[in-house]
Amino acid sequence: TPYAQAAQAEFAAAMAVYDSTDAYNNSSKKRMKKAAKLPPLVKPVMDDVTAELVAVLDKAEELKTKYQLNEEGYTLIDKRKISNNEIRLRNIEAVQRNIEKILSPLLTCDKLGRIYNEESFAANKDDIEWLKRAGNMLQKERMDDKGDMTSCIDLPVFIKIAETLYDVEPSALAARKMAKLDVMKEDWAMAKKYYLEAIEQEDDLRRKANDYMGLAYVNNKMGLSGSAKSNCLAAGQLRKNWGNPYLYLATIYAEAAGDCGSNAVEKNAVYWSAINKLSYARSIDPEVADKATKLISAYSQAVPDKGVAFQLGYKEGDQVRIGCWVNETVTVKFY
């Protein structure tokens, strides 16, 4: 029955995460793989267990942080351990995705609001771990009924959680939550301040990369395209196989069409730069491949016209220098 299948999926996923907290043995490895492969099921209403499953997701987040290590300066033996941790990390993330599929109909902002609300905040406002857990769940992006990614940071309780956490325990996590609040309020100057604080205090490379992307968004909103570009590149350096920074940078380039250069070719050469970034993103990150391909198709239609380029003395294979903040050289290519 759907109830039995749901219970089986929950148990397998929970046990996989539980096992890996102490020892990563063959048993836990098999459980993780089994849980990761479970299909998304049509789930019954599980309000009574939603909070417990949310806690399992939190544990998965802790484990992901535990196994995210930087290889620089490590011995060969250490690097083998890191390689094993990367396998663990992939399995944990797969389990987490499966749990999120199970919970996706339940983790709406309305449902989370029943767990994290004014009453629960009043009861737990001095509990740092509760504040962190609640803040993480509310700011986590999820797919809404329209298929768009959204979060629950506009719930009034999130504002109290973020402000309290920042006052009680200033940290990268607290600064990040404050930054997201200010993004929601479109207070770009304050959002930038808090993202810079988060970047300065964060040791985890993945989270720091995410903060750089948040800062890139803010700088772009402030009209600081050059700074946004630098932020994207910094994020890409921290997470080598992450395509999002280059995907976003490509859109920033496309927005600059007409701003840089002295003629029609130079002004629209940014589309070639954008396509280059999208091609790179697609080559390193399969998760962004579809979106990158669609944008490449769109931007290919916007590159300088072949006839106009010929009249201005450009032919395929020529180099074009893009000035201003883009500061790149691209190769002329017609589609």
Task: Outline the structure in words.
The structure is a single chain. The chain has 335 residues and is mainly alpha-helical. Among the domains are: 1-107, no CATH class; 243-335, no CATH class. 68% of the residues lie in helices and 4% in strands. It is built from 17 helices and 4 strands. The chain has helices at 2-22, 26-37, 47-67, 76-103, 109-115, 118-124, 128-139, 156-168, 172-184, 188-201, 205-221, 225-238, 244-255, 264-268, 270-284, 289-300, 306-311; strands at 142-143, 149-150, 319-322, 328-331. The strands form 2 sheets. A two-stranded antiparallel sheet has the order 1-2. A hairpin with a 5-residue loop joins strand 1 and strand 2. Helix 1 runs antiparallel to helix 2, helix 7 crosses helix 8 and helix 9 (172-184) packs antiparallel against helix 10. The chain is elongated, with a radius of gyration of 23 Å. Mean pLDDT is 79; it is low at 14-29 and 35-49.
Task: Provide the spatial order of strands within the biggest beta sheet.
Answer: 1-2
The percent of residues in helical segments reads 55-70%
The proportion of strand residues reads under 5%
Given as residue ranges, the uncertain stretches (5+ residues, pLDDT < 50) are: 14-29, 35-49
Overall pLDDT confidence: 79
- The number of helices is 17
Quote the distance from N terminus to C terminus: 53 Å
Question: What is the CA-based Rg, rounded?
Answer: 23 Å
Biggest sheet architecture: 2 strands, antiparallel
Instruction: Give the overall form.
Output: elongated
Provide the succession of SSEs: HHHHHHHEEHHHHHHHHHHEE
Structural class: mainly alpha
Total strands: 4
